[in-house]
Amino acid sequence: METCEATMATLRIDLAAMADNYLSIANRVAPAAAGAVVKADAYGLGATEVCAALSTAGCRHFFVAHLGEAGRLASLARSGRSIFVLNGLPVGAEEKCAEIGAIPVLNSIDQIERWNRYAKAEGRQLPAALQVDSGMSRLGLSAAEVDRVVADANVLSHIDLVLLMSHLACGDDASNPFNDEQSSIFAMIADRLGRPPLSLDNSAGCFLDRPHLDLVRPGIALYGGNPGSGVNPMKPVVSLEAQIIQVRAVPAGTRVGYGLTHQFDRPGKVATIGIGYADGWPRHLGGKGCAFIAGRRVAIIGRVSMDSITLDVTDVPPEHLYPGAPVEMLGVHQTIDDVAEDAGTISYEILTRLGRRYRREFPGLPCSPCQEGAAI
Ligand SMILES: *Cc1c(COP(=O)(O)O)cnc(C)c1O
Prior knowledge:
- The protein is α/β, with parallel strands linked by helices.
- The chain contains twelve helices and 19 strands.
- Strands 1, 11, 14, 15, 16, 17, 18 and 19 form an eight-stranded mixed sheet that branches. It has a seven-stranded parallel sheet with strand order 3-4-5-6-7-8-9.
- Helix 1 (15-29) packs across helix 3 (47-56).
- The radius of gyration is 24 Å and the shape is elongated.
- Mean pLDDT is 94; it is low at 369-376.
- The structure holds pyridoxal-5'-phosphate.
- Pyridoxal-5'-phosphate is lined by residues 37, 39, 86, 167, 202-204, 217-221.
């Protein structure tokens, strides 16, 4: 079997836990159906494996950001699953989109017109989702554009409108009144458009205390991220284990790393591990973040380098400190949300930046070979 020689670190993705997360959301939002957002290679975890596991768990609706991402999942579309392309229909991509069998999320009058014209020229109806802006001002038709669609039935003459969607701006803050405001704006627009199947909720929206319409679009919660601000109800999915490359004992006064930003005020021990910011470990965590060795917290000292990180392991029993010894970066002691908080960001960014140099393991599946293009 091919082994990955990029880093000696292992990223484990627990597909069974992810499927459990999917099922718990599906139960929670019923009778709404639960789809899955698998953009950015399923938040960096591997869309092929993730989609296979979610399909087995019963998921029939998948959302990606780009048409190219949909292309890699074309076999799902052929097996009757819906692949929605959130960023819509790029100019000139109509034929490609139809060929893949992807469903564009049409975000503007121009996109609607191009898809409709293409379908008409092909002499058939083509499916599409329509996104409307209910207050976030990111993607989707404005109120005036909705008026135009309502006024002129020809605009959608060859489009089979399978989903009407919008996106919450403040879903992760359950008490924010803007959630209700967006819900009612969306309901009004839905009525005007003849109430096609409706989708509003991302992960956070799934945990709001109100009905979930026809289809929900969770992403981060499937992958173990906290969909809200309280105790995380999801199972952790990702663990990351690095290895010690070298340990050195240092006298008091020793300084560490680029810029010599850390100085030992006592005799100590430094362990260097073989991942760095090129592996998505935020440089911002220099002097701030931590890892765990044999369950003990060890601080990141000095700056995070491209391919290595230095840890203060002074208080770790020596039997755990040897080349090749495991170091928990993500796991039972440190979640993606913990790392995100230390780094001043969100779990989404931690996950999607994890990068391509790890050996990926999907327990229960054969070990996946190194991703193409990985550096050695
Ligand atoms: C990314 C995305 C989602 C998923 O959001 P999570 O917060 O990860 O659940 C849902 N809908 C749209 C339109 C998105 O862009």
